[in-house]
């Protein structure tokens, strides 16, 4: 912004030199200095606000695709990734994990305990997946995974690995799976 203001000042001075009706001695006056300060300060101010706005918009885009409780992707982002994979036509597995007895935990120990359980499950699933996999919280106590597992055996083994990982963390979960395009 400030450099755009400086450029505007340089252009102003150039226009004065190019205009034969204005004497070139009028360039180095107080009004030129005032214009330079105004242009540079105005440009810097606009540039600062634009940079802050860009940062804010980027952060809002991230938050729009993120589940507030677990930090994983949310349903909207998961569905977009699912549509993208389906349109690509390559094989992939979809796994849906459902926490067992979350309602009972909430009723017995309170929602704070249920939130801890959800965060624990999210962390456990996130550590189990591989680099290209997509993990999201797709419902109240449901998580979805899009995996590059290409056979039913791979998907079944991956589901068992998630269940075992979460069981080690003290979280009971049921995982279902399907492989695209064989299973629809």
Describe the structure.
The chain is α+β, with helices and mostly antiparallel strands. The chain is built from 6 helices and 4 strands. Strand 2 (134-137) and strand 3 form a beta hairpin. The longest helix is centred in the N-terminal third of the chain and has 35 residues, at 30-64.
Main structural class: alpha+beta
The radius of gyration over CA amounts to 29 Å
Report the total helices.
6
Low-confidence stretches: none
Strand proportion = 5-15%
The largest beta-sheet arranges its strands as 2-3-1-4
Helix content: 55-70%
**Cα distance spanning the termini:** 54 Å
H/E element string? HHHEHHEEHE
Write a brief caption for the model.
About 60% of the residues lie in helices and about 15% in strands. It has helices at about 1-20, 30-65, 75-90, 100-110, 110-130, 150-170, and strands at about 90-100, 135, 140-145, 175-180.
Helix and strand arrangement:
Blueprint: H1 2-18, H2 30-64, H3 75-88, E1 92-99, H4 102-109, H5 111-128, E2 134-137, E3 142-147, H6 152-168, E4 173-180
Antiparallel strand pairs: 1-3, 1-4, 2-3
Characteristics of this structure?
single chain; 184 residues; alpha+beta; four-stranded antiparallel beta sheet; 14% strand; elongated
